[in-house]
Structures are given as structure tokens and as C-alpha cells.
Amino acid sequence: MELAFIKNKKGTLLHPITGMISFLCGIFSLVELNINYLFLSSFFLPQALYSIPVLGIFSGIVALFTRRSKMYAWWGIGLNIFVLLFSFVILILAWSINPKP
């Protein structure tokens, strides 16, 4: 009789992983940003600096709808938004400097 109540949970593996993917995208983006600014050159693809945080934000939003990985989702969303915001602020500040008036 107990076998009738066992649910098939094959598709539920993706949901807990999405929060961790968001968090790891945020950590990798921070590492990439630090390496690029430390060596003053781009070791990674320039598009990766913007595409990886967007992927992390998207997977974090998906992970917010699960119960297990909300903490990783919030941390991932926060880290990815910070990387994007920092990149855009540095870009705007770099454009505002006029070396030849």
C-alpha cells in the first residue's frame, strides 16, 4: 500500500541546481573581473563579462521559485547584479574622463 504514495521525482533535480549555478556564475564573474583588472588585459572573452552575469540572474530568478536553493539564488542574483553594475559604472566613468579638452 505504501508504494502507491511514492512519487516519481525524476524532474526535480534541475531546480536545486539552478540556485547553485547562479551562485557559481556570480563567483566566476567576480574572478573574471578581478583577473581582467589585475592584469590590465582581457584573458576571457569580452562578451563573457556581460553574458555570464545575465545567465546567473536568469537562473537565480528560476531558483527563487524552489524551496531548497533560495539562499544560493539570492546570493547569485546579488553577485551578478554587482558585477554588471560595477562594469557599467566603470565604463561610464571611463567615458567621462576627457584627456584632451
Overall description:
- The protein has one domain.
- It has three helices and no strands.
- Helix 2 runs antiparallel to helix 3.
- The termini are far apart.
Rounded mean pLDDT is 81
Rg, rounded, reads: 19 Å
The helix content, as a percent range, equals: 55-70%
Count of individual domains: 1
In what range is the share of β-strand residues?
under 5%
* Count of helix runs: 3
Main β-sheet description = none
Count of individual beta strands: 0
Helix and strand element order = HHH
Overall 3D shape: elongated
The low-pLDDT segments are none
Structural class: mainly alpha
Alpha-carbon distance between the two ends? 83 Å
Task: Describe the structure concisely for a colleague.
The chain is mainly alpha-helical and 101 residues long.
What attributes does this structure have?
101 residues, mainly alpha, 3 helices, 0% strand, 68% helix
Topology:
Elements: H1 14-39, H2 48-63, H3 70-96
Helix pairs in contact: 1-2, 1-3, 2-3
